[in-house]
Backbone:
């Protein structure tokens, strides 16, 4: 199946929303120029868009005419190698200067859980890896659907019913189990919404795409700029539930619209940079905190008083450097390693079939 250009562009957009969110934190910490408005923090909505995109991709692309073993191999090789590559320097830094790595976390980090993306009571060593813990959970469930040949729509509905039952029957166990907390997280609904959009796309349903696109875009902008700050979602104990409603639903509407429009109006031409940002997005997402934190620390050394100029320099260089770092890691490591591993997996699978 050919690459969906709108999906790649959306991935690049989502990654840069997250970069802006973390830039707002780094700006406050190191330059205090107050250039980025407070609502920039809610660029965390990029994560919700990623989850919806992931659900869509599983159904429309990655899980299309593919077996469970091949599916899991492609997903595991997509996630782990680059994640490990970026985690290693964080581990080295944690050994040499532990105060610089996740200093706000008081509980010791389990390295094996961190590197294998197993749910834990703390964030992984590479903090942004918490989203990958959810991703691996999504992949595992989806591979079960493929293995048991469960229709995706039936599987998604059944999955939702099971999760609601777990929450209702054993809430105390959920409260103390990191595995159950991930399994029953409201954020799973965003993956499910993406999967439903994927089902509609495979059935060539594109009714109301323009209205959905306008509604999704306006809803996402309003949620980031106005609704999330008004509700103080950053400090809400129900952040995950709120973000599904404020960020997840508009994201699903956007994904439905852009994929539907691409199907209706193919061939679609997008600027190469937009597609490239999407190609680099996974590497950019993994590396950006290290990059912008390093820039923030350097600026603090040269301009300890911070101010407007330092903040502008941080934002401009941070956005550029985060994407360039993603490009470098993608081109030099992620793409060739992924290509080799996919080829290796295909050979091994063919050998097993021929036996």
Residues:
């Amino acid at each position: 199946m050919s690459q969906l250009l709108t999906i790649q562009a959306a991935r690049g957009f989502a990654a840069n929303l997250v970069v802006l969110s973390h830039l707002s934190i780094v700006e406050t910490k190191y330059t205090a120029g107050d250039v980025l408005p407070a609502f920039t923090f809610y660029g965390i909505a990029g994560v919700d868009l990623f989850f919806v995109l992931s659900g869509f991709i599983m159904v429309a692309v990655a899980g299309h005419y593919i077996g469970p073993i091949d599916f899991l191999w492609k997903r595991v090789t997509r996630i782990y190698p680059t994640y490990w590559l970026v985690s290693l320097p964080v581990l080295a830094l944690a050994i040499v200067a532990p105060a610089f790595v996740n200093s706000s976390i008081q509980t010791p980090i389990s390295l094996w859980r961190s590197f294998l993306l197993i749910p834990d009571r703390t964030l992984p060593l590479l903090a942004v890896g918490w989203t990958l813990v959810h991703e691996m959970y999504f992949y595992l469930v989806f591979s079960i659907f493929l293995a048991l040949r469960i229709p995706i729509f039936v599987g998604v509905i059944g999955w939702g019913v099971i999760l609601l039952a777990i929450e209702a029957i054993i809430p105390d166990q959920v409260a103390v189990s990191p595995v159950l907390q991930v399994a029953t997280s409201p954020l799973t609904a965003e993956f499910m919404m993406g999967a439903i959009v994927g089902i509609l796309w495979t059935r060539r349903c594109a009714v109301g795409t323009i209205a959905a696109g306008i509604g999704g875009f306006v809803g996402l902008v309003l949620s980031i700029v106005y609704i999330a700050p008004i509700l103080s979602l950053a400090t809400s104990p129900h952040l995950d539930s709120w973000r599904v409603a404020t960020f997840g639903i508009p994201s699903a509407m956007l994904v439905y619209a852009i994929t539907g429009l691409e199907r209706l109006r193919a061939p679609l031409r997008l600027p190469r940079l937009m597609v490239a940002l999407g190609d680099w997005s996974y590497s950019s997402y993994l590396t950006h905190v290290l990059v912008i934190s390093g820039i923030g620390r350097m600026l603090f050394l040269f301009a300890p008083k911070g101010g407007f100029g330092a903040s502008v320099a941080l934002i401009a260089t941070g956005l550029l450097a985060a994407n360039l770092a993603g490009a470098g890691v993608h081109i030099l490591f992620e793409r060739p390693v992924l290509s080799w591993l996919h080829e290796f997996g295909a050979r091994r699978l063919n050998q097993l079939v021929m036996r």
Notes: DSSP finds 13 helices and no strands in the chain. The first helix runs from residue 5 to 30. Residues 83 and 286 are 7 Å apart (CA to CA). The mean pLDDT is 91.
